[in-house]
Design goal:
With about 325 residues, this protein is of the alpha/beta class. The chain is built from 9 helices and 7 strands. The model has no long low-confidence stretch (mean pLDDT about 95). Bound molecules: 5'-O-[(R)-(carboxyoxy)(hydroxy)phosphoryl]adenosine and zinc ion.
């Protein structure tokens, strides 16, 4: 395989959702539509190339919000047709994992990846760039969702994950929150969310300033509970599969507490660990390009009649032309 370089990685984030307490699908697609032309122009400018230098265009087919995905698929098709170059569909969750191939050290196969984002929480066994198996996943909320929903209960704006991470740095996990009992390699966060709600309601009855005065310790306790729920099945999966190479990926892999815990576990379990650079944790263009690069190299391009799939699964391979 020829080496790939990331020439530019432009990310446009939508902060407008904060005041609504979550992502509003219609608003998300409208904002995508407004931003996409500008973002692509900027990427070309940053990369110091001409449009005619581009050999193929990759886009996210799914999973994600239908409206937002459609904007990307349509734009990619239109631009590729104009330039007479092929298109390459990319699976969002596979791309989070394949971001580990952007920079050295790259993981050797097989490795296990804990993929933790706002919509997914999975332990994936990766045997090749195009051979992935989900060993376990969440039965209800995703880890990022757990951070965001619990943060909302605390009165934090959306997305609360990064704010809880920041608050937790100055706190200690002094409050005990219950752990869900789940079968092998699976996860569950809805019980934790409810327990957290009741815990705060009870405390606030006794002391209406409880949250205000104990923000850091509350955040640290919540983060501790989520990290425990994430790492327990990961340790089990590694021990039982005998795979000692462990990666983390997705928005929640930016969490300092999780990154620290994975490093500790790495020492304890004798793992070779792979922690992405912060800019490759949350959704970004570079991971889509890297995932597409594998397909480009293998000559796998998408049909022109391809469309978005909001529920696309890992390792679900469509027909390619
Ligand atoms: O992968 P991502 O950017 O988008 C999805 O595919 O969902 O992940 C976004 C999620 C959000 O739930 C956000 O709160 C969470 O990742 N997140 C974090 C941190 N940074 C982002 N959660 C905890 N700590 C962080 N530092
Ligand atoms: Zn993502």
């Amino acid at each position: 395989m020829i080496d790939a370089n990331i020439a530019s990685n432009v990310v446009s984030s939508q902060i407008d959702h904060a005041k609504w307490g979550g992502v509003i699908p219609e608003l998300a697609s409208r904002k995508h539509m407004e931003a996409i032309g500008r973002v692509v122009d900027q990427a070309i400018l940053d990369a110091e190339i001409k449009k005619s230098d581009i050999d193929a265009i990759a886009f996210t087919r799914g999973p994600g919000l239908m409206g937002a995905l459609l904007v990307g698929v349509s734009f990619a098709k239109g631009m590729a047709q104009a330039l007479q170059i092929p298109i390459i569909e990319v699976n969002h969750m596979e791309a989070h994992i394949l971001a580990h191939f952007i920079d050295p050290p790259v993981p050797k196969y097989p490795f296990l990846c804990l993929t933790v984002s706002g919509g997914h929480t999975q332990i994936v066994r990766v045997d090749a760039w195009d051979q992935m198996t989900i060993l376990g996943q969440t039965l209800d909320d995703a880890a990022g969702e757990a951070f965001d929903k619990a943060g909302k209960i605390m009165g934090l704006p959306y997305p609360a994950g990064p704010l809880i991470d920041q608050l937790a740095r100055d706190g200690n996990p002094v409050y005990d929150l219950p752990q869900a009992q789940v079968k092998k390699y699976h996860f569950s966060f809805s019980g934790l969310k409810t327990a957290f709600l009741y815990f705060l309601q009870n405390q606030m009855k006794q002391d209406p300033s409880f949250i205000e005065n104990n923000k850091a310790d509350i955040a640290a306790s919540l983060q501790h509970a989520i990290i425990k729920a994430l790492t327990k099945p990961l340790v089990l999966a590694s021990r039982e599969t005998g795979i000692p190479r462990i990666a983390i990926a997705g928005g929640v892999s930016a969490n300092q507490g999780l990154r620290k815990k994975i490093k500790e576990l790495g020492k304890q379990e004798n793992w070779e660990i792979f922690i992405p650079r912060l800019e490759y944790c949350t959704d970004n263009a570079a991971m889509i390009a890297q995932a597409a690069w594998f397909k480009f190299d293998a000559g796998q391009f998408s049909d022109w009649n391809i469309t978005a799939d909001p529920r696309l699964k890992v390792n679900e391979h469509p027909s390619v032309s």
